[in-house]
Design brief:
The protein is an alpha+beta fold. The strands form seven sheets. An eight-stranded parallel barrel has the order 23-24-25-26-27-28-29-30, surrounded by five helices. Strands 1-4-9-6-7 form a five-stranded antiparallel beta sheet, with no helix packed on it. It has a five-stranded antiparallel beta sheet with strand order 2-3-10-5-8, with no helix packed on it. Helix 2 crosses helix 12 (609-623), helix 8 runs parallel beside helix 10 (543-555) and helix 11 (578-590) packs parallel to helix 12. The protein is globular. The model is unreliable at 1-27 (pLDDT under 50). This is GH10 domain-containing protein.
């Protein structure tokens, strides 16, 4: 595709830049840091708000750096966390080129452990500055540790500095072996080999509980709990989410594992599956769960976990109560070989009996699901169109049999991404964004902590710039977010306010933002992540949420007001189950809040289509509101796996009638929140995930060829959006016309004048 080839050319251009940069180092060293190991004392280094000193490692043998170098630097007499050591790198660092950063760090003084941070600060030639936090690591006073990270600069550079900071005041910061080098390009990955994967087959042995003594062959107890098999009483049908993946299967046995004498939450039944797991394969988890209601009257959180070499990975979570059987679903994958892996069921409180029936762990056949989703998409997203070709006044119009070519140039389904003000400084990022997306959301620039970092100090300049850019390019914009309910996302001056002052600040924020941008943002996320936070509710009462929605609607009636939260689509967080989300929205609406949309953030790993679809089904059926994926990203080490993950979510979204838009949370490596989720590499090369997005966009365009019939009509079924029509008559007369297919339930008739 055109975008792909142009960005591949950009990668070659950056390789030339990198080659030119390396030629600046006469000794062949790629490091742009001067005097990196302090062999030349403190030359080229300076203090940042404190004092720095040179320390000889041989004088304090217990301080010997990792590399055994003779000297290291100490930042001392520090009175602020940002005090540290820095070096100017102007003239040696380039924009649009990725860099690896490494430093040996350690602390000394009143703390035994503290965070150490390496950052880059750039003053732009246009007066715009860029700050990049490159890496953060907890250092100790016992040993040296290696701090590592990567960065990419967008602005044209006037001055640039790298600096190391972070520990609390009074703690000395020790630094050695600092390196900033152009990042080496990783070798291209290979697609995983799934040729030996048997899809839909349970990895667990004896899942029907009929083999071995007591029917427990293959099963083991985690901890000192007791396992037994109960011969009946469990559901015999597959849980619905598994049924969507597996289709019609032999009914379950009706038996279940009973775990008793549980003395801690993690005790329960398990199976070892080390030798059965394959790298990069997505596994779906399915089971029926129940707790012994006679042993508790409190709802219990029960989960299925994959334990890999001591690390616990969630495979699904559900709230279980009242003695009924509950479906649990989830997913996982591994990206590195495991020495030991097992599946475990647990989570209920100590003393609560736990029952497990029909537990299955099976590889998901995504390709088969994709075929099904293509058919659904054609039903949900296309409309019947009839082109009525009227004769001209002169009578020499378009006769039957004329050749018709209909080509769609733009699909109107909202597909957007997060952008930030600094992205506008990088023309390559801008080009990819404009070419591939029709909606935008600002990463930080509309959030309260950005627009008013200190009370009364208002900054809308970045949001204004982004909004103007989007208008110039015909891109619609979501407003994210008016408030953020999670406490660690609230700026310190807001946290310090008493109830009356906080209430006044909330009203000022609403008035300031929504008056300034009235009719500018199509949506607003009113109070972000209310399922996971309660900052404003705890201080102003539950009714504050209703008040936020009402006031926002009064100030900007045209904007659709959304709730927005994470983990709702993944079945691994009971705080954010679809049922919890539904209760929240219904409570808001009962209080008079004009909730107009439901946001699923979509920060997902190893997504499984039927699990996502089940969540959207429940939300759509219960609320009848439009659903948007608002912050989609799919991190995976292998870009081919990442591409398939992206395809899973996009296909599920576009095929579901309740979903009205999808927003990605960034797309460019080192310029987005989540690592290993990018569609474009730092050097500008579109990777497999980016190519998959472009492939789907091409698939979701409709083209049709044929001839005008005897009634002077041409019929086709196509996606909503913009089209061009070309007609060629037998007499070689040509006619061209543009038209748009908009949403509707009936056949769209479009008159074409010849």
């Amino acid at each position: 595709m055109a975008a792909d080839s142009s960005h591949r050319g950009l990668g070659s251009e950056l390789l030339v830049q990198k080659s030119n940069l390396l030629s600046l180092n006469d000794d062949g060293d790629q490091n742009i840091i001067l005097n990196p190991s302090f062999d030349d004392g403190l030359n080229n280094w300076s203090a940042r708000g404190c004092k720095i000193a040179l320390q000889e490692s041989t004088a304090t043998r217990n301080m010997l750096p990792l590399s055994g170098t003779k000297y290291f630097a100490v930042a001392t007499e520090r009175t602020q966390y940002w005090n540290g050591i820095q070096q100017e790198i102007t003239g040696r660092v380039q924009r649009k080129l990725a860099y690896d950063v490494a430093a040996a760090v350690r602390i000394q003084g009143s703390a035994t452990a503290a965070d150490v941070i390496v950052s880059v600060y750039v003053e732009g030639t246009n007066g715009r500055n860029q700050f990049v936090r490159v890496a953060k690591l907890q250092a100790s006073d016992k040993d040296w540790v290696q701090l590592q990270g990567k960065f990419l600069l967008s602005v044209s550079i006037s001055k640039a500095f790298v600096y190391i900071e972070g520990p609390p005041a009074g703690v000395d910061l020790l630094v050695d072996n600092v390196a900033v080098k152009p990042a080496e390009k990783s070798p291209p990955p290979s697609p995983p080999d799934f040729s030996n994967v048997v899809y839909g087959v349970n990895l667990l042995e004896n899942s029907d509980l009929t083999d071995g003594p007591g029917g427990l062959s293959g099963w083991l107890a985690i901890g000192s709990c007791k396992l037994s098999v109960s011969p009946g009483g469990a559901p015999r049908m597959l849980p619905p989410m598994a049924r969507e993946s597996l289709g019609t299967r032999t009914p379950l046995s009706g038996r279940h594992v009973l775990a008793t004498n549980r003395t801690t939450t993690w005790m329960g039944p398990a199976q070892t599956i080390t030798d059965k797991l394959q790298l990069h394969v997505t596994y779906q988890v399915s089971a029926w769960l129940r707790v012994g209601w006679s042993t508790t009257s409190i709802a219990q959180i029960v989960g299925v976990s994959l334990v890999v070499d001591g690390k616990w990975i969630s495979g699904g979570q559900v709230e279980v109560s009242d003695g009924r059987w509950y479906e649990i679903g989830g997913s996982f994958r591994i990206e590195k070989p495991a020495s030991r892996a097992f599946i475990s069921v647990g989570g209920a409180s100590a003393g609560v009996d736990l029952m497990v029936a029909g537990l299955q762990i099976f590889p998901v056949d995504r390709k088969a699901r994709f075929k099904h989703l293509k058919n659904l998409t054609n039903k949900v997203r296309k409309r019947e169109v009839v082109l009525k070709i009227a004769p001209s006044e002169s009578g020499d119009g378009i006769p039957p049999g004329s050749i018709v070519h209909v080509k769609q140039s733009k699909n109107s389904f909202p597909l957007g991404t997060c952008i930030e003000r600094m992205n506008l400084e990088n023309e390559d990022v801008v080009a990819f964004f404009v070419e591939n997306f029709n909606w935008a959301v600002f990463g930080n620039e509309l959030k309260w902590y950005w627009t008013e970092p200190q009370q009364g100090v208002i900054n809308y300049a970045d949001a204004d710039d982004l909004l103007a850019f989007c208008k110039q390019n015909g891109i619609e914009v979501r407003g994210h977010c008016i408030f953020w309910e999670v406490e660690n996302a609230v700026q310190s001056w807001v946290k310090s306010l008493g109830k009356d002052d906080l209430n006044a600040a909330v009203q000022n924020r609403l008035n300031s933002l929504l008056t300034r941008y009235k009719d500018q943002f199509r949506h607003y996320d009113v109070d972000n992540e209310m399922l996971h936070g309660s900052f404003y509710q705890d201080r102003l009462g539950k009714e504050v949420h209703v008040s936020m929605f009402k006031t926002a609607s009064e100030l900007d009636p045209a904007a659709t007001l959304f709730v927005n939260d994470y983990n709702v689509e993944g079945a691994a967080d009971t705080r954010a189950s679809p049922e919890a989300y539904i209760r929240q929205v219904l409570d808001l609406q009962a209080g008079g809040a004009p909730v107009g949309g439901v946001g699923l953030q979509g920060h997902v790993r190893a997504p499984v289509g039927p699990i996502i679809a089940a969540a959207v089904d429940r939300l759509g059926a219960a609320l009848g509101l439009p659903v948007w994926f608002t912050e989609l990203d799919v991190p995976a080490e292998n870009e081919y796996v990442r591409a398939e993950d992206l395809e899973v979510v996009l296909r599920e979204a576009v095929a579901h009638p309740a979903v009205e838009g999808v927003m990605l949370w960034g797309f460019w490596e080192l310029l987005m929140w989540r690592e290993k989720a990018h569609l474009v590499n730092a050097d500008g090369e579109v990777n497999e995930a980016g190519r998959r997005l472009q492939m789907l966009k091409e698939e979701w365009l409709s083209h049709a060829r044929g001839t005008v019939d005897e009634q002077g009509e041409f019929r086709f079924r196509g996606f909503l959006g913009d089209y061009t029509l070309e007609i060629l008559t037998p007499a070689a007369k040509r006619l061209s016309q543009a038209f748009t297919v908009e949403k509707g339930d009936t056949t769209l008739a479009i008159n074409i004048t010849s």
